Amino acid sequence: MSKLYTVAVAGATGAVGTEMIKCLEDRKFPIGKIKLLASARSVGKKIKFKGEDIPVEELKHNSFEGVDIALFSAGGDRSLEFAPSAAKSKCVVIDNSSAFRMKDDVPLVVPEVNADDLKKHKYIIANPNCSTIQMVVVLKPLHNISKIKNVVVSTYQAVSGAGLKAMDELEKQTAAIINNTDIPKPSKFAHQIAFNCIPQIDSFIDNRYTKEEMKMVNETRKIMGDYSINVSPTTVRVPVYRGHSESVLVITERKITYSEAFAALSKAPGVIVQDDPFKSVYPLPIHCAGKYDTFVGRIREDVGFENGLSMWIVSDNLLKGAASNAVQIAEELIARNLL
Q1: Around Cβ 31, how many Cβ atoms within 10 Å?
Q2: Is 244 noted as a catalytic residue in this protein?
Q3: DSSP E strands: which ranges in the chain?
Q4: Catalytic residue among 121, 143, 244, 288
Q5: Residue 199 Cα to chain centre, angstroms
Q6: Which is catalytic among the residues 121, 130, 143, 288?
Q7: 62: domain range?
Q8: Are residues 202 and 124 in the same domain?
Q9: What pTM did the predictor assign?
């Protein structure tokens, strides 16, 4: 009989935490017991798991005794506070925040790209940024053909990446505009998000990039294991509920033809190619929502750069961009006997 594991989900009532719980059930993760953890104000709530109503408990430093794996999506501050306590209890933490991503002794993992890095874990593993995950899943098969030198990426990121309140903000603003009533003032975003695009995700830093953009720069290099890759990002919030889209240009050492790229991506793990533009076939957020894979289309040899390849990448930011990537990491830990 296969071993069953005790799993905790910290931040169980949030947008990503909810998806983590669904993923664990949908992917039939071998769970013997599940603990759902959140802040004190959520204690007493019940969340269904495998037909049972599981009560939410308060996240505390002693919450991880006897727990094998903890999936964290409770925000960076809480990760910094509670993840070390879990690690001391020999519980492996898979953290969805940015708290540990760039620490040298913490693996930053996308299983299709760098699962071997898991063997270096010291009970804390970082789940990358949502926009980085879907990009590197596509970049890796191309990098294997010819070394990537430069990446220029513009993202079109769904509001769910900013949480449930952001989704509510889009809904209320959209309803107000349609019904010709007063538009609620923005609280989650710097500007109105309904019928708008905002070229700012997170705060700006001294180099005039945002923190979100610099995450894509630094995380891509760490995950790909190549710090010579240059990444030039612009991240944009768009009025889409679910599913991040990216326009990506890669420049490689030698030219990768369309045929080479199509063949490599068609057999790449976790990637689905949807590329028949003459029949209007390409990835769309509405079709990718609720799916675990990363979708790529509009693949073309770039007309502006001799060794350039352009493409359009879409993935569900709550799943592959967060929850399912974390669960995949947990599955890899079991498969590699690293718990």
Answers
A1: 16
A2: yes
A3: 5-10, 31-38, 46-49, 52-58, 69-72, 92-95, 124-126, 148-157, 230-237, 244-252, 271-273, 294-301, 308-315
A4: 244
A5: 19
A6: 130
A7: 5-128+322-335
A8: no
A9: 0.96
